[in-house]
Design a protein that fits this description.
globular, eight-stranded mixed sheet, disordered N terminus, alpha/beta
């Protein structure tokens, strides 16, 4: 039950028996959450990094029409051809995660290992939560993710196929 409050409405269904893939790791920081943090009926604010990639577009499509989620940010790498493109009414692709990620938002990362670490550092600075589906993380990068997870909750599922299947499951249950 404590874990449900820790990671909020976006990721709590991962913890229902049988719904979390065996390759996933949940890193709740020690002492988190503060007692005032509870899962609410308000939509969860989500920022999708790698939004124009194959996985990012699937995640965007899954979350876009679900009233339990509010997409507040769509992020791509600096220099990407779609920077500035309005991909949904009022939602344009940006290259500055820090401009859109706020406290208590959920960051969804399906990017490169280096970009994922940058995103998680930003999430930690802003006290956001994170779901990571990036593959190819080195042992050193995984160690840094564990370190970052001392301050924010992170669900790590670095198998993109499994990660997307879990997100499909999440949306169905939401």
């Amino acid at each position: 039950d404590v874990y449900k409050r820790q990671v909020g409405a976006l990721v709590f269904v991962f913890l229902d028996e049988g719904s979390i893939p065996s390759t996933s790791t949940i890193y709740p920081p020690e002492g988190f959450p503060p007692s005032e943090l509870e899962t609410t009926m308000q939509p969860v604010s989500v920022v999708v990094c790698g939004v124009r990639g194959r996985m990012g577009q699937q995640i965007l499509a899954l979350l876009a029409d679900n009233a339990k989620f509010h997409i507040v940010g769509a992020v791509e790498a600096k220099g990407h051809a779609d920077i500035g493109l309005e991909i949904r009414p009022g939602l344009s692709v940006v290259d500055d995660l820090g401009a859109v990620l706020k406290e208590d938002d959920v960051l969804i990362e399906f990017t490169t290992p280096a970009a994922t670490l940058d995103g998680l550092r930003c999430a930690a600075e802003r006290k956001a939560r994170a779901v990571v589906g990036t593959t190819g993380l080195s042992e050193a990068q995984l160690a840094e993710i564990k370190e970052i997870a001392q301050s924010i909750p992170i669900v790590l599922s670095p198998n993109m196929g499994l990660g997307v299947n879990v997100l499909f499951n999440l949306v169905e249950q939401a």
